[in-house]
Write a structure and sequence with these properties.
The complex is a heterodimer of chains A (352) and B (595).
Chain A: H1 38-52, E1 60-64, H2 68-71, E2 81-84, H3 90-100, E3 105-111, H4 112-118, H5 120-129, E4 133-139, E5 142-143, E6 149-150, H6 173-179, E7 184-189, H7 193-205, E8 209-215, H8 231-237, E9 238-240, E10 243-247, E11 263-266, E12 272-277, H9 287-298, E13 303-310, H10 318-322, H11 334-337, H12 340-349
Parallel strand pairs in A: 1-2, 1-3, 3-4, 4-8, 7-8, 9-13
Antiparallel strand pairs in A: 5-6, 7-13, 10-12, 11-12
Helix pairs in contact in A: 1-7, 3-5, 4-5
Chain B: E1 4-12, H1 17-30, E2 34-41, E3 49-57, E4 70-73, H2 76-81, E5 93-97, E6 117-120, H3 122-130, H4 136-148, H5 152-162, H6 168-187, E7 207-209, H7 211-222, E8 226-229, H8 236-245, E9 252-255, H9 259-271, E10 276-280, H10 282-297, E11 302-308, H11 325-330, E12 340-341, H12 346-363, E13 366-372, H13 373-377, E14 379-382, H14 400-404, E15 430-432, H15 446-458, E16 470-474, E17 480-484, H16 487-501, E18 506-511, E19 513-515, H17 519-526, E20 531-536, H18 542-550, E21 557-561, H19 570-581, H20 590-593
Parallel strand pairs in B: 1-4, 4-5, 5-6, 8-9, 8-10, 10-11, 11-13, 12-13, 17-18, 17-20, 20-21
Antiparallel strand pairs in B: 1-3, 2-3, 2-14, 7-14, 12-19, 16-18
The chains are: A alpha/beta (352), B alpha/beta (595).
């Protein structure tokens, strides 16, 4: 396993954010992905999203499971804690970390094997609990680290590098998340950073589980003719159906709708998601409509992308549902937390 | 006067024998007796047979006792279903409802003396006193209080408390049913009398609780602020108590979607800086094993409780066994670090759980607590826990200076490196299941892997000197010895009393720390021992086998092990030790007995 620290180089023209940090401060070690891997583009988008949202790196926990995608947290935010855990178990680790310190910004990076096969139960329950985290699913349809087996998101008929077609149904994380009651569901393409960055920023602002499924072609095992997860196929079939912009809470929110804007959704932190283009009759806050629309439009092989569904109030976030104290558990001093012998005596009286 | 009384009761689901046993147990504890209660059910949730066993004594007791002194059978067929769990003998007094019409010599309990069989109109008394047969269990309490002198006043108070919220008629009916039982006993006194001596109420009576509740209470006391788990018999009560209590102390609890998520979330909370625990039983432990390995290599504190049940697989989920020691010590891929501790009774479950948290935090490693169904679910009287004897330890966090050049897995003298958590500026590191260097960056270097393994195992060296995690009882220079762990240790404490009362100098070693094996402790304990038994409830004799891996056991030390469900009896252990000791005198038989 190689690990290459990136040389520190600061160009005077690099823009500093509100914390005085430049984009460089949000980068990590050198990537060990294959040249051209979609994951590296997503890493770059994540770096931008954190920089542009002025997130202090030390308040971020980067969580991942096992797989190519799960290695990538090393390649962004070297100033943040990371935990590259066990295959399929990142959602549980994230739940515990969120419970222990609600002030953290959690980002989980996973892949289609990690999230849709070995860890589908854990991802489903993290959605059900509405853990406050940005969950990026880097979706390429194959197991890369083990050299190219089909994953659960491989489309039926999509061909492997050796030409064999996949015969099984695929699992669509977007439809799965919608049916599980997710409050923020997006799909994007690693090759479309203009679309991806605002989605990631909105996902960071979202209070609850934000699923961002990103089609991220595997240049080594799944970028050939006949694959439905190749760059070419994705470019040809991507349909940027929903366009939106993210307005952070510190910017003055002008009541007037921008031209062509169809809808604005207020986030819990005061920021705003402004939908500027949606298909006729499409309501991104109507779960049933969104599911019907996706089923209808995906039938032909189209890959609709964008922030497809957003309803910050559809379900309470995990801490709100369990009414935990506002102060993060990690900040509570031990003497406040230790019940002491008086409380133990009271407990013991119950045993008499 | 008796100083020790064992009562067994069995009936159908609706007969209320278990609630009668609970009432008797609470009253006995309030009246200052040492008391232990176990209950047993068929596998049905409702209906079916149920039984309980209550042992009350005026001196400390360590197990639920052997042959019953009193057997209460509300139904013969239900009683017989419990077979060896409710053994009777010639001195057992059998109480049954006379409506069954069975003559004393015909009762279906082998070995009982006909003159000890007492038929009472239990159903009729219940009907007359309370207008219903549902008060039969209260009549039984009256009979027991009358004949055996146990805690009549406390029982009466208990009944008043229990029925206080019901209508006045129900409470009065219950009180009349109890009095009817007492009066029947007074009219038909036992000859000779079998009453139990009075308990010592000087300390204001005793607490009554079980091992699972003690484990949960100790976790809160030790600073545990996150619990992740999944319901599984017989450990669920730990989660249940914490789900009520942990929120009061600023903690949080997750009833997870599966066993893996339970331990995963606990590990996540530990990574984020809080003390965390999960609890399960054998099958759940199997599922958690992968994360146990992750906790070990990521060097994160974590307490994992396994309340053992009969196995493998579904096995006997409501019965006790000690057959998960191999799993606790060895189940993993790779060289995994995790001390294993085992409590031996309800009271010391508190101590062991606090030690587990302290060790986990100090050594930055997962610690397994191996409890078992017997102590986890039995009710036991105990004196209030004096928390003054505990010191709570916290994980070592980096100093401001260490944060300047923070290396999460820095090589240190004792192997323990400062541990930061997310939100600690300057303390960022990449935690991982992958092998890493001092700063946490991934490596595939064999040399670094070897050094890191050495570092992780070196942390455990301090355990070799922890004599406080062992108890030695009896005659220090004895040449007869017992070694026992978990709930079997209590039975061996009583076996030791029997042996010493018979004039056999003998001693007992009880380890709380099972793994890593502190070989010096065993070596010095076994020095000069001519005959010894390692007593445990597993088919394979797992502790004996583990000891043989690490300690040169003297030739006269052998395994006394059998499968779970039915506890050992003190007398059979004392007898077995005498058996292997006796032929050893001529020096011939020892070798063939060995192992």
């Amino acid at each position: 396993m190689s690990y290459i620290r990136k040389p520190v180089a600061r160009h005077p023209s690099l823009r500093a954010n509100a914390l005085g940090l430049t984009l460089r401060d949000y980068e990590g070690a050198m990537s060990t992905m294959c040249a051209g891997c979609g994951h590296d583009s997503i890493t770059a988008a994540i770096v931008r999203a954190f920089h542009e949202t002025d997130t202090p790196p030390y308040m971020v926990a980067k969580l991942s499971g096992i797989g190519c995608s799960s290695k990538t947290p090393t390649y962004f935010l070297s100033g943040a804690h990371g935990f590259n855990s066990a295959h399929g178990r990142m959602p549980a680790i994230a739940t515990g970390a969120a419970a222990a310190n609600r002030a953290l910004t959690l980002i989980g990076v996973s892949g289609d094997g990690d999230s849709l096969s070995i860890g589908i139960g854990q991802m489903s329950h993290a959605i059900r609990r509405n853990v406050n985290m940005l969950y990026v699913l880097e979706n390429n349809g194959v197991y890369g680290l083990t050299k190219g087996q089909f994953s659960a998101s491989a489309d039926p008929g999509s061909k492997s590098k050796r030409g064999e077609p996949n015969t099984q149904q695929s699992i669509d994380p977007v439809l799965l998340a919608l049916s599980l009651g997710a409050t923020f569901v997006a799909r994007s393409f690693s090759g479309d950073k203009d679309q991806l960055v605002p989605i990631l920023k909105a996902g960071l602002a979202h209070r609850g589980f934000a699923l961002v499924d990103v089609v991220s072609p595997c240049v080594t095992f799944n970028d050939h003719d006949g694959s439905t997860k190749s760059y070419l196929y994705t470019r040809e079939h991507q349909q940027a159906a929903i366009e939106m912009s993210f307005v952070p809470h510190r910017e003055e929110i002008v009541a007037q709708y921008a031209p062509g804007t169809t809808r604005e959704v207020a986030m819990h932190d005061g920021s705003l998601v402004r939908f500027s283009k949606v298909p006729d009759g499409y309501d991104p806050t109507d779960r049933r409509m969104v599911m019907d629309w996706l089923l209808e439009h995906q039938r032909s092989g189209a890959i609709p992308t964008g922030l497809l569904f957003l309803d910050p109030d559809a379900n309470p976030e995990m801490h709100a549902a369990s009414k935990t104290p506002e102060m993060p558990l990690t900040d509570m001093p031990y003497d406040k937390l230790c019940p002491g012998s008086a409380a133990l005596d009271a407990l013991q009286r119950g045993y008499r | 006067m008796n100083d020790d009384l064992v009562i067994g009761m069995a009936g159908s689901g609706g007969d209320g024998v278990v609630s009668a046993g609970e009432a008797l147990t609470s009253a006995a504890a309030a009246a200052g007796y040492h008391v232990i209660m176990t209950k047993s059910f068929g596998s049905q949730i409702r209906g079916g047979e149920s039984s309980c066993r209550v042992r009350a004594a005026t001196r400390p007791i360590h197990g639920c006792g052997g042959t019953l002194d009193v057997a209460v059978a509300l139904s013969w067929s239900d009683f017989l279903k419990f077979g060896a769990e409710l053994p009777v003998g010639p001195d057992t007094i059998v109480v049954h409802d006379e409506t069954t019409g069975v003559a004393p010599q015909d009762i279906p309990l082998a070995g009982v003396s006909p003159e000890n069989v007492l038929a009472a109109p239990i159903g009729a008394m219940s009907l007359e006193a309370a207008g219903t047969e549902r008060a039969r269990n209260i009549v039984v309490l009256g009979l027991l209080a009358g004949w055996f002198g146990i805690a009549a006043e406390a029982l009466r108070r208990g009944i008043a408390k229990r029925y206080a919220k019901k209508s006045a008629g129900v409470l009065e009916g219950a009180e009349r049913a109890f009095d009817a039982g007492m009066q029947h006993a007074a009219r038909h006194p036992l000859d000779p009398p079998r009453a139990l001596a009075r308990g010592d109420v000087a300390g204001g009576g005793k607490l009554l609780t079980d091992g699972n509740d003690m484990c949960a209470a100790a976790a809160i006391f030790a600073g545990c602020r996150f619990f992740g788990g999944y319901p599984i018999t017989p450990s669920s009560e730990i989660m249940q108590l914490l789900s009520r209590e942990i929120w009061k102390y600023g903690g949080a609890l997750l009833q997870a979607e599966d066993e893996i998520a339970g331990i995963g979330a606990a590990l996540g909370a530990s990574f984020a800086g809080k003390k965390a625990m999960t609890a399960t039983s054998g099958p759940g432990m199997s599922l958690k094993t992968e994360i146990l390995g992750l906790a070990s290599i990521a060097e994160l504190p974590l307490v994992v409780v396994n309340v053992q049940r009969g196995g493998p697989s579904t096995g006997m989920p409501t019965k006790s066994e000690q057959a998960d020691l191999f799993q606790a010590a060895f189940s993993a891929h790779g060289d995994v670090v995790r001390p294993v501790l085992a409590p031996t009774c309800v009271a010391d479950t508190f101590d062991v759980t606090v030690h587990a948290f302290n060790l986990a935090e100090e050594l930055q490693t997962p610690v397994v607590v191996l409890s078992d169904q017997e102590i986890a679910q039995r009710k036991e009287s105990l004196d209030p826990i004096d928390v003054g004897r505990f010191t709570i330890h916290e994980r070592r966090t980096p100093t401001a200076e260490e944060l300047h050049d923070y290396r999460r897995f820095r090589f240190t003298e004792d192997g323990v490196s400062p541990l930061s958590h997310p939100g600690m500026a300057g303390g960022a590191y990449q935690g991982a299941g992958i092998e890493h260097g001092e700063a946490g960056s991934p490596t595939s270097s064999g040399a670094l892997h070897a050094r890191m393994n050495e570092k992780r195992f070196h942390k455990l060296d301090v355990l070799q000197a922890r004599r406080d995690l062992f108890q030695v009882e009896g005659d220090a220079d004895a040449d007869l010895a017992l070694i026992a762990w978990g709930s079997t240790a209590g039975v061996c404490r009583e076996a030791l009393e029997i042996l010493r009362a018979e004039g056999r100098r003998s001693k007992l070693l009880v380890p709380w720390l099972l793994y890593p094996v502190a070989d010096d402790v065993y070596r010095s304990f076994l020095d000069g021992v001519r005959a010894g038994l390692v007593v445990e409830q597993s088919y394979q004799g797992q502790l004996f086998r583990v000891l043989r891996m690490y300690v040169d056991l003297p030739a006269g030390v052998r395994s006394f092990a059998r499968s779970g469900a039915n506890p050992f009896q003190p007398r059979e252990i004392a007898r077995r030790l005498q058996e292997i000791a006796t032929p050893a005198r001529d020096g011939a038989v020892v070798a063939q007995l060995h192992g």
